[in-house]
Amino acid sequence: MFYRPADGHGLPHNPFNAIVTPRPIAWVATRGSDGSDNLAPYSFFNATAYVPPQVMFASTSAKPDRDGTKDTVANIRDTGVFCINIVEHAMKDVMNQTSGDWSADTDEFSLASVDKAECSEINCPRVAAAPASLECRMTQIHKIEGDTNYVVFGEVVGIHLRDDCVVDGIFDVLAFNPLTRMGYRDYSVIREKFSLKRPGE
Q1: Which SUPFAM superfamilies match (predicted)?
Q2: What residues contact 55, with CB distance under 8 A and at least 6 apart?
Q3: pTM > 0.85
């Protein structure tokens, strides 16, 4: 099968999101300039550099009360900071609860009964029980093709690791089993791993 996205795929559901998988999930916490807290998941997310450590995520839809974007991007645009929390399988249901199209004044931490803690380096909340949290200072927000598509880049200025996830000196993903996003309504979970040496190592 071949199709041009501009012409449509002819299938019952768009296959594009199911092609680039699994995708890590950024559970992004922000604080508005009015002091309100927000928490929402984004699966167009990844690390982009080691030194200094940097990450990105993309927001691809909008709310009518947020000037062409969503609460998360609007808050970051106003304050310049955000915190990415890593989602473990055990938190799948509360993460999903925070994905709703809630009003700007809704605190998703409270809505989903997610315990929050304060970040150390930035004025922003974080998910207290997350396996890891990345405190970020926004470096760039890029508008890309599409009416509501924005990519947010940030430098990681503080990292929280949950103590039980550090095993024999490594951050062990099997200690918490990361949740990953697939296509459609599908998710998956990391339950096994293996190592490969690069040529010449």
Answers
A1: FMN-binding split barrel
A2: 26, 45, 46, 47, 48, 84, 134, 136, 153, 154, 156
A3: yes
